[in-house]
DNA sequence: CATGAATGAGCTTTCATTCAT
DNA sequence: CATGAATGAAAGCTCATTCAT
């Protein structure tokens, strides 16, 4: 019998997560302190510990939610697309339409890839990292196979490998977005064309 | 014991850097403690501070040396190659011949990309990060232009952009090497072919 | 316990300062450790750092408060005195009535003069030292000038110089109080008479 | 059977003591490090430990020598003076002729009084402090008694007390020399006159 | 005797977490 | 639930002293 509504709690949690993200972005997970987060979100230290049991848990929750939100968005948009091509197009465009010099996006990139590397050291997190990656690969693999069945894509290419290659490209491009002189659009656009050319039947 | 040779001191430094690398690989820069490094390299805390003035300096030196060594290796090998094609081949093969599941290589990847992301937050380090990247892009750009002049590569392609694309691909592949089920060879080989196909004159 | 009154916090601060004083008195600022202070005041190390940001800050606050208290006391008592003579008398008596072998007073003397000498090496502290001294000289100078205007004191003496001389004497006597066989009263009483004799009109 | 001559050793010792003095003056005994002294005197750390067994010993030796030199100087000069008056004159003039803003002198003052306060905390050092002070008081006391016997000084004054008073004045003036706007000459000259007036028979 | 690299106890300070109010 | 003062283990770093060469 909770005293406050679930909505209230969820709202509070998101406030904390937003502040935590800002702090992790500015200083990194290890260097950002609970006091930083407290100062940023305006509530008390005790309050935060009512919603999260540790700094690590905030970190985990923050990034789990971010990737979940990502997945949800993908699936939501895919529902609107009829062809595999348009789905692939959508995926590429999700990154092409992103503003590479948007401070918030860069911060997210840094925090996100730092978390991936961090996850490398903890068996449980590594497990989750693999699962998420598998889901991402499957997402693209399904599209490619769909395109192959519908005749949009060449039927003799290894779909799984192409799915892997897609995310390899995306992560490469994202990582380079931290260089402010990186020709993000141009590189990504060309890679997209190169990629789709190989994929599509003549 | 005092009055030791420069070689001795250099050797000591490398011992410390090796131990530090192991510790940073196992726990990350922030989490690894000086005591960890002390325990790993067997010398006393004071001894380490005779060679490096802070944990941060060890970190910086470690990664500066690693990238310098990398550059030196590239330039050394390029001297042996006559054609631009064979140089590009060498570059790709440097990554294709790497064992993606070699523990040491994975550790290096994690530490290296973590350092890049870390550098993002310090103006001085960011500056260095940019410089290193510029040098890497120039390295490839020079090869491509050389190939264009010699008629090996298409003359109408933007060499700079292709150089950027090269490192985007490499970083993407490296980053995915942390997933033990990643088909490292296959993905990289196909990307290499795709990349060189576009580059070479028919 | 949180959300405590300002009084509570002030009390805590004073507890810490009292303990710090004891420790500095016993060992000196540099030699006394935070652990000594922790052990003496019974609270945790973290608690102390909630009230002061460094050992140095404790030292500074301790001595700033002590001298401020001194000034306040002087001014408070001067309000009760009508003549310049009685004010000078009060000043001398403040030192004559002090118990020279009181352990606490001796400790204060040592800590206080050590701090003065310490301040000599830091431009900011030296500045403060000068200001405090100027205020002390002004305090006495004002009294002398007042006495000259009222005809109590000779009008042809340089008041400023006499003010300087007053504190010279006081500091000399204080410093010698650390010698337990020093005839504190006798020396100070004679110096007082000598001093006032020269000051007073016949 | 020492390998090097005593003179050589003594010279080395003095080199070390000079450097140590500079360092203690600049930073204080606790804050100055052996490395500071090493850097200043140009010899190795081990060399210093051949002549002194600890930093504390350097400190002690430094100040013992300084005060011994002082005593020796006094006695040497007193031999030249015939009257008690001229001896007292000499003593006062030793301080009156000192340049109060001479950096070296100020440094000596700070180091010297810091050492006195430091000695307060160690029974052995306190003992030495007392002995030295007793000798200083005796020095002046002897002069005054000599003057009384020769009829130069009033015979009914307590010589011991006057001797105490002398050093009280000197220490007060010295201590104030650290304030660069202190009218050192004027204050000391007036105190001298005041003092001698009381002493001398009409 | 001279050297300076090595030692390691000990220092100040930080900060995730707890819990009395 | 909210608060923020309290905790104390641990962190990075220093430095007087030693001793192999």
What does the model show?
The structure is a homotetramer of 202-residue chains. Helices cover 75% and strands 0% of the residues of chain A. Chain A has 202 residues and is mostly helical. The first copy, chain A, has two domains: 1-53, Arc Repressor Mutant, subunit A; 59-199, Tetracycline Repressor, domain 2 (Orthogonal Bundle). In chain A, helix 1 (6-27) packs across helix 4. The longest helix of chain A is centred in the last third of the chain and has 27 residues, at 123-149. Chain A is elongated. The model of chain A has no long low-confidence stretch (mean pLDDT 93). Chain C binds chain D through residues 26-28, 30-31, 110, 113-114, 116-118, 120-121, 129-130, 133, 158, 160-161, 164-165, 167-173, 175-176, 178-179, 181-183, 186-187, 190-191, 194, 198, and chain D through 26-28, 30-31, 110, 113-114, 116-118, 120-121, 129-130, 133, 158, 160-161, 164-165, 167-173, 175-176, 178-183, 186-187, 190-191, 194, 198.
């Amino acid at each position: 019998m909770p005293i406050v509504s679930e909505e209230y709690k969820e709202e509070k949690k998101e406030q904390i997560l937003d502040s935590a993200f800002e702090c992790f972005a500015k200083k990194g997970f290890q260097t950002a302190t609970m006091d930083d987060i407290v100062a940023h979100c305006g509530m008390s230290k005790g309050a935060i510990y009512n919603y999260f049991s540790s700094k690590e848990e905030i970190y985990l929750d923050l990034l789990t939610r971010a990737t979940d939100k990502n997945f949800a968005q993908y699936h939501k948009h895919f529902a609107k697309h009829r062809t595999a091509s348009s789905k692939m197009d959508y995926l590429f465009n999700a990154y092409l339409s992103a503003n590479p010099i948007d401070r918030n996006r860069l911060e997210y990139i840094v925090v996100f890839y730092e978390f991936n590397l961090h996850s490398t050291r903890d068996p449980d997190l590594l497990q989750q990292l693999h699962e998420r990656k598998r889901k991402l690969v499957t997402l693209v693999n399904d599209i490619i196979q769909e395109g192959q069945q519908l005749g949009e894509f060449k039927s003799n290419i290894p779909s799984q490998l192409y799915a892997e290659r897609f995310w390899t490209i995306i992560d490469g491009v994202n990582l380079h977005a931290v260089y402010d002189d990186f020709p993000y659009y141009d590189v990504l656009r060309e890679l997209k064309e190169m990629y789709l050319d190989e994929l599509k039947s003549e």
